[in-house]
Design a protein that fits this description.
heterodimer, A: mainly alpha, ABC transporter involved in vitamin B12 uptake, BtuC, two-stranded antiparallel sheet, B: alpha/beta, Rossmann fold, 4-stranded parallel β-sheet, 43% helix, globular, Leu-bd (chain B)
């Protein structure tokens, strides 16, 4: 078998694929953050909690009402997104226009409250969500066993990422959004309900996190703390990609998944640090991020 | 009358002074500090319910010892040796805490026991696993009560090797506990004629195990051993089943599983997994009776750690009652001299290195058909006698043991 740095090629190809799968999660999560920051200038520290809520809601809807996976894939982001709109309307709106640090602290507080309450109810051992029947099993690719579900994660995440990028960058609605946040008075003069647009944007960003949560439910332990560890990594991804750059968030997400995956093969103890190392390097040489526009 | 009273008081005072600190309860209070992970990965196995077990012990003891109050303070260790160290330093130096109970992450216990030694206070560790706590890290100021990695490896690893799992690949949590468990497993596997063909040290905690599971599969080992705990183990088991580890002919061996982990996995996913435990709630009338009371208070069945916290606190208070002192060395000596016979252990003994040795149990997770309710999860396959379970003193590197 051919080897690369002492690692069989087959193992390496497997790790690359795994990296892309994890990268798809990072992309989806950092995309939501980038949308919220890019359009609303809110640093959303509640993003991890929303991801967790997406997964929790999926499990709870199944346990209480028998709601199946496909319905949850739409319902959970919808519910969590609506919850996001409520947070925007009652809390974030009150500090609009203030320094970024305010939104950071506020959303961080909200995240801690949500997480704390859920820990009290459910503990941290985690809830189980059974793999949907149609995704059970997998296919042998020769170099690795590929569970069907992981393949679906890549497809679903990339579709949603591309869709979001397209809507914001290429459609009229996206143009309104960008213009509305650039100069809200002017846009209101044109008869566009900017506050509503802002609420919906926050709700949408949060719904993206919840969507990632639903995707995660069958493969990870669903626990109230699952968001907090992921959040820090995802923030690093957004910083590397360039705060607010939508396309940058997607590409960087996948790239970081791959880099992390390779580290897990060559030197596992560094795998939790490697993304931050990249972040430090990027900030040193390109302070506005790989895809950021202004310095 | 007043004269008499004065005389009496001074007599008592001089007796107290003569016997020094040994025969007194400092500050007229026995103060117990409960330190555990209250919000992170290891919350459910000890956490707030461990504090409930501690409170149950104090209430069952009568709420006071020798007429003195028993107080509890508690803190979240956040699985951080730094946070824990500063908490415990404050407790023992400024807040007159006499004994620290709980303690889960092994790195926390090792850090805390050093501070307890400096200040000559007592620690009773119930949650931690590393066998090094009473080996190279032993101090005259702590007791390790419930279990450690030595019997975990002895019980589970030797059972799996004897069933034909000769070559092992280990997924190890990269900190004190994982390292300790890994070396204990290596010893047992090799002693039984097996071989460890590879090991990965993964960051603690890890959510996504797919990379590691893939490497374990590629190794072609008979057994994938999980030398981790809590959510790391349950995540690894879930991922292994998703990637078809067992279908491809490899056996999965979880070396440390708590009842709460198995409960979270459910009998469907966890069935057939063998594990070693220091205690199980459904072993006999005594354990069931206590567990029912625990469940009434907390809503869940107790883990071995919860039971150990209860049992060790009762032993601690009994020792204070017998000696009339809360001095660490006096109490520890008394606890070492008293065999433990309660719902937690039969004929348990605390050795000079601080290790409480007692029978351990090899258990198997029931199938969904066998399991009568959500907490009916283990079949006890075998009792591993105390002397077979723990590291013999003759192999000890502890400074308190004359080898």
């Amino acid at each position: 078998m051919s080897m690369i740095f002492g690692v069989p090629l087959a193992v390496l190809s497997g790790q690359l694929l795994i990296g892309i799968i994890n990268g798809a999660f990072y992309a989806l999560l950092s995309l939501g953050l980038a949308v919220i920051f890019g359009l609303l200038k809110i640093i959303n520290f509640a993003h991890g909690a929303m991801y967790m809520l997406g997964a929790m809601v999926t499990v709870l809807m199944f346990n209480a009402l028998g709601v199946n996976y496909w319905v949850a894939l739409f319902m959970a982001p919808l519910l969590v997104g609506a919850f996001g709109v409520v947070i925007e309307y009652f809390l974030l709106r009150r500090i609009a226009g203030q320094d970024h640090i305010y939104s950071l602290l506020l959303t961080f507080g909200v995240a801690l409250i949500i997480q704390g309450v859920l820990i009290n109810w459910f503990g941290v051992s985690g809830l189980r969500y059974a793999m949907p029947d149609m995704f059970k099993g997998g296919i042998n690719l020769g170099f690795m066993f590929m569970p069907y579900y992981r393949a679906w994660v890549i497809v679903a995440a990339l579709l949603v990422c591309f869709g979001t990028w397209f809507v914001i960058e290429k459609t009229k609605l996206g143009a309104y959004l960008r213009a509305g946040t650039e100069d809200s008075q002017l846009m209101q003069g044109f008869g566009i309900n900017v506050p509503l647009l802002i609420s919906l944007t926050y709700g949408f960003g949060v719904a993206l996190a919840a969507f990632a949560g639903v995707l995660a439910a069958p493969i990870y332990s669903v626990t109230p703390v699952m968001g907090s560890t992921t959040l820090i990594v995802v923030f690093a991804v957004v910083v590397i990609g360039g705060m607010g750059s939508i396309g940058g968030a997607i590409i960087t997400g996948i790239l970081m998944g791959v880099i992390e995956g390779l580290t897990k093969t060559f030197y596992p103890p560094a795998s939790s640090a490697v993304i931050f190392l990249v972040m430090v390097l990027v900030l040193m040489f390109r302070p506005s991020g790989l895809f950021g526009k202004e310095a | 009358m007043t004269m008499m009273k004065k005389l009496l008081t001074s007599a008592i005072a001089s007796t107290l002074m003569a016997s020094g600190a040994q025969a007194a309860i400092s500050n007229d209070t026995v103060k117990i500090g409960y330190l555990a992970d209250m919000s992170g990965t290891y919350r459910d196995l000890a956490g707030p319910n461990g504090q409930s077990a501690l409170e149950m012990a104090i209430a069952d003891f009568g709420g006071s010892v020798k007429g003195k109050n028993i107080e509890i303070v508690s803190a979240d260790d956040r699985n951080s040796p730094d946070t824990s160290s500063s908490t415990v330093r404050r407790w023992v130096e400024n807040e007159n805490v006499d004994m620290v109970a709980g303690m889960v992450a092994s790195s926390v216990s090792i850090a805390v026991s050093k501070i307890l030694e400096e200040n000559d206070k007592l620690g009773i560790i119930s949650g931690s696993a590393a066998s090094s706590i009473t080996n190279e890290h032993c101090t005259p100021n702590h007791i390790h009560y419930v279990y450690d990695t030595y019997p975990l490896a002895n019980g589970t690893a030797s059972a799996v090797v004897k069933e034909g799992g000769k070559s092992w690949y280990l997924l190890t949590a990269d900190y004190a506990f994982g390292h300790s468990l890994e070396s204990d497993v290596r010893r047992v596997v090799e002693a039984n004629g097996g071989e460890v063909v590879g090991a990965i040290r993964h960051p603690f905690p890890t959510q996504d195990f797919s990379s590691f599971v893939l490497q374990a599969q590629a190794s072609g080992a008979d057994v994938v051993g999980l030398a981790n705990a809590g959510a790391d183990t349950t995540n690894a088991i879930t991922t292994a089943s998703e990637f078809g580890v067992t279908q491809s002919g490899q056996t999965l061996a979880a070396l440390l599983l708590f009842l709460t982990d198995v409960h979270a996995l459910g009998a469907q996913t966890a069935q057939g997994i063998q594990l070693t435990t220091g205690w199980y709630w459904d072993m006999n009338e005594e354990t069931r009776e206590w567990s029912d009371r625990f469940m009434e208070k907390t809503g869940v069945r107790p883990t071995m750690v919860h039971a150990g916290i209860y049992s060790s606190t009762i032993q601690y208070l009994k020792a204070i009652e017998a000696t009339g002192s809360d001095d660490a060395q006096t109490v520890r000596k008394q606890m070492m001299d008293t065999p433990i016979n309660d719902m937690f252990a039969k004929n348990g003994k605390i050795r000079v290195d601080g290790r409480m040795v007692h029978d351990m149990y090899l258990a198997e997770v029931k199938t969904p058909a066998e399991s009568k309710n959500e907490w009916d999860l283990y079949k006890i396959l075998r009792t591993i006698p105390a002397e077979e379970s723990y590291r013999p003193l003759s192999e000890s590197k502890c400074k308190l043991v004359n080898n």
